[in-house]
Amino acid sequence: MSDDRTAPIPPIDIAELAEGWHDEADVVVVGLGAAGLAASIATAESGLDVVALDRSGGGGTSASAGGILYLGGGTATQAAAGLSDSVDEMAAFLAEALGRPADDVRLAAYCAGSVEHHDWLVDHGVPFEPAFWDEPGMEPPGTEGLIFSGGEDAAPYRLHHRPVPRGHVPATPNAAGWFLVERLREALGRTPARVRTDHRAERLVVDAGRVVGVTVRVDGGELALGARRGVVLAAGGWAYNDDLLAEHAPALLQVAWRLGTDADDGWALRVTQGLGAAIEGMDAMEVAVPITPPRPVVRGVVVNRAGERFINEDTYFGHLGQAILAEQDGVAWLVVDEPRYVVNRVGMRAENVCETWEELAAEIGLPPDGLAATMAAYNEAAARGEDPAFGKAPEWVVPLVEPPFGAIDLRVEKILYAGFPLGGTVTDADGRVVREGGDVVPGLFAVGRSAASLALRRYCSGISLGEGTFFGRRAAAALAAEAASAG
């Protein structure tokens, strides 16, 4: 194989397997994060024989994630919390927020199946407390099960859609990714699926164009595992492939914390491309800047290197981070007056404090006239409780006129931004890998970060775990249906 870490990895023809199959199953699932666990559980429960592999011990990025799942349309958790929602409202919001049309086949399937998917998770041991926590975007410190997780309560979305909390958080304090993974592992353990850890997949195996297996490196040797019905790739994304990032999303190379593990090396993307898979959204990224909680932080104003505002500060922190990194070259400051100064959960503090906006601008290297003009315009509108420039919600709009004035450095090299790429392999509504010509690769599915995210423009917290587990199950259902039709 080529040493080029961006190059497609071609498959092996079955005729090249000198020793034949070392083992066979109906389905081989590669990767045991949340997406792979869901795919393995659902496939095994359908009656198909499953071998589930992981290059390490399983869990992947999911185990270290916040654990939020983006679900809606009127889930039982929403209803029990006294919150109404509908599939149409969910689809309309996500279409605008993520950058896909509402009738996109994957998005439409995800929204239409969200209530049923919520119930499947609950039935498999993932509980949600029907209580709303009003700090958006972050997992609660308690066990509250619902949050705003994509800017639903902020402009521009609140102007077009009724704000509905859809971030579903499994009922455990703080980050819940490990809890979600453990509950799904327990559910997998109740099935007859065969789990093999420390098995590193290397090449796909094809027979007359159909994917029929995978070669695996284990204990220094190579095994070939046959898949009579198909292979499901749930092996992570490409956040830790610097060559792919440099080619497609170079701004992410500046981010201190790339969300992922060393398994996010682009292997799944490259093996699908070895079979002619289409790709999409390769320049799209999630980049979070941790300015909240607490929510009152957003009464401050975020400015760029010209001392100008460029976004409403009450937006989802992923949208703020994306805007700073992708549109402002990673340079921004949060400026406040003395009564509005708050130290947030991660301890971000004002290192520059002055008596006037002009002095503060000069101290941090901004044009003094630029920052002063920005604040004069903002304060004039804020005195009326308005933000005509960017639509910050009235409850967060207040004049910043009481010195001293402070600046919190939001430059990407100064604080802990967290990010990962969103683009990848194109799949259909059942997780089948789609070629550039529009046909599917027989016998091959990709789910979780092994596929392109539903998020093509912006992100909502919970989409990764939501779509990963959902399309893992969709792939399982498609495999079971194909097996039934084949007799």
Q: What's a concise summary of this model?
A:
The protein has 487 residues and is α/β, with parallel strands linked by helices. Helix content is 28%, strand content 20%.
Observed structural traits:
Flavocytochrome C3, Chain A, domain 1, four-stranded mixed β-sheet, 13 helices, FAD/NAD(P)-binding domain, 3 domains, alpha/beta, 487 residues, 22 strands, elongated, nine-stranded mixed β-sheet
Structure explained in plain terms:
The chain is α/β, with parallel strands linked by helices and 487 residues long. It has three domains: 12-65 and 178-286 and 418-486, FAD/NAD(P)-binding domain (3-Layer(bba) Sandwich); 69-174, no CATH class; 290-409, Flavocytochrome C3, Chain A, domain 1. Helix content is 28%, strand content 20%. The protein contains 13 helices and 22 strands. It has helices at residues 34-45, 76-80, 87-98, 105-112, 114-123, 157-160, 177-189, 242-248, 267-273, 317-327, 357-364, 368-382, 463-486; strands spanning 12-13, 23-30, 50-53, 69-70, 129-132, 144-147, 167-168, 194-196, 200-207, 210-218, 221-233, 257-258, 279-280, 285-288, 301-303, 333-337, 352-354, 405-409, 418-421, 424-425, 432-434, 440-446. Strands 1, 2, 3, 8, 9, 10, 11, 21 and 22 form a nine-stranded mixed sheet that branches. A hairpin with a 2-residue loop joins strand 9 and strand 10 (210-218). Helix 1 runs parallel beside helix 13 (463-486). The longest helix has 24 residues, at 463-486. The two termini are 38 Å apart. The relative contact order is 0.19. The model has no long low-confidence stretch (mean pLDDT 96).
